[in-house]
Amino acid sequence: MDLTTLIGIIMALGLCLWxxxxxxxxNFIDPQSLAIVIGGTIAxxxxxxxxxxxxxxxxxxxxxxxxxxxxxxxxxDQLVDLAMLARQSGLxxxxxxxxxxxxxxxxxxxxxxxxxxxxxxxxxxxxxxxDDMMAxxxxxxxxxxxxxxxxxxxxxIGTLIGLINMLKGLNLDGGGGASSxxxxxxxxxxxxxxxxxxxxxxxxxxxxxxxxRQAEEELYCTTVVEGLMGIQAGENPKMxxxxxxxxxxxxxxKKLLLKAEKAGGAGGGEA
Length: 271
Prior knowledge:
The protein has helices at residues 4-20, 31-48, 51-54, 57-65, 72-89, 93-98, 104-115, 119-168, 181-232, 237-244, 250-263. It is mainly alpha-helical. The protein has one domain (70-271). The protein starts with a helix and ends in an 8-residue tail after the last helix.
């Protein structure tokens, strides 16, 4: 479970409250301003996206707190094992092995290299599936990025509403208007505070975390595609391992390659 997003949001809220001061928190509470910013942002997002995307918001929240789903070193070991099996028994032997694979994308990809003979066609089909997945993830992260731009805008709208009402009711001739000027101005500015806070404490961090999860899945899918293309081409398992681990840090590569050699799992010295 990944709690960094929740921890960051709590820290940001705590720092804001500490900066305001316990005795002055009441000065920053205004239900109408909150309704303009939060309600307006939700309304604008609803107007911008179809229901099929909006209905996935609970799933997005689940993704935020989900731990790292994809283990690239484990995937590489799995692909190397498949490569060794294909070299020993042929690609058709992978069909039975595919039934043991739980990940839908990897399973489908393995079955495709078993059934299809044209590597370019297989790569095109896998990359098309990957592009479709990334497009859906782009829409999800884009929703919160769009919300982070709407929130400050509605904060400014609320401020303008407050300023207009304040100036409309200002009566300098009567002697009572100037005395409430400071209080009315502070209420008008609260919506700007709400809009900026909602955008930068909630929307932007959520969008960024979804982008991080998207990058993890993209790396996973790319590794699957490259690995299976190597298997279909009959690439040496040891060389395949080195090729697939090239996306990782040098220190991690050396550690994993050394571990594979000690375990005798590379199996790539055989031609």
